[in-house]
Structure of pectinesterase:
Amino acid sequence: MECHRTVSSVVLVLVLVLLLRWPALSSASVPVSRTITVDSKGGGDFRSIQSAVNLIPDGNRQWVRIHVRAGGYREKVTIPKTKGYTLLEGEGHSSTEIYFDDHAHGSTDGLMRRGADAMLTHETATFSVYADDFVARDVAFTNTHNRVNKSHVTQALAALVGGDRIAFHRCAFNGFEDTLCDNTGRHYFRECFIKGGVDFIFGYARSIYDGCTLVSTIPSWYGRRRAGWVTAHARRHAGDPGGFVFKGGELRGTGRQYLGRAWNKYATVVYYHVNMSSVVVPQGWAPWYAGNNTNDVLFAEVGCTGPGSDMARRVPWEKHLSKAEVKKFVDMSCFIDDGWLSKQP
């Protein structure tokens, strides 16, 4: 009888464990049609990531996984607009890294003529995605150009995100100036690390950064001369969708940082329950291209913590949102998700 009770107890525990795990097991219900493996050491289908991307047919409508084994991949990778439904999967952002060192350069005349000696900012990205319906997990995207010498920094993108319905999970974006071009579309970043010093998250997109860690890498000598800016949002018109929303997570690092500056007069950035270290300057925000016309700039902080969250000396034009206004930004279904996230693998 005692043995029977023991067996029954074990079965009950196993059933409970399975029931508790069932939501996690059933959440990945969207299948992938095939997996392509990339291994820099030659143990996969390809040695380069771009070669795997090129194999995906134009007009693709079924999810294809590109599994990138641990290692460093020195290449520029582009997901063109014609190759949607791509899942890029690494083995951890500390193990799988795509890196390159392009940077914006050239004279004004050279840039106008598009000569061989010129490179525009968007062309410097180590990783670019223009396709809709893209997911990346556990990968680091790095631009190494400004890593050592910060005496003459210039734009050097780690990633450019230019499609719609895009999600990054547990990825890292490493750079200094213009690290992440969050350009256009609806994007979701979950538990990502984003490192930089100057405008290191910028663009026009409508994005939620959920539980992400923002790391200022401004050296102390640079910080004595001036501060950096975490964000530079570029919303142009009142009716344009767009805004960067940071939910949870933290802002830390070295040097001094403004929370953001207004690239255009309708720039929109909200920090919600973010833990802020003392890297944040007391003023919090800068008007930049909005100049003296900051009435339409929507910069706000809600329920943030840490020594950098003290709002006593913030700029007077920072917005104070009602509960209904806050919900429009922090509620996933209100701001970015009409069901597309549940359709990703």
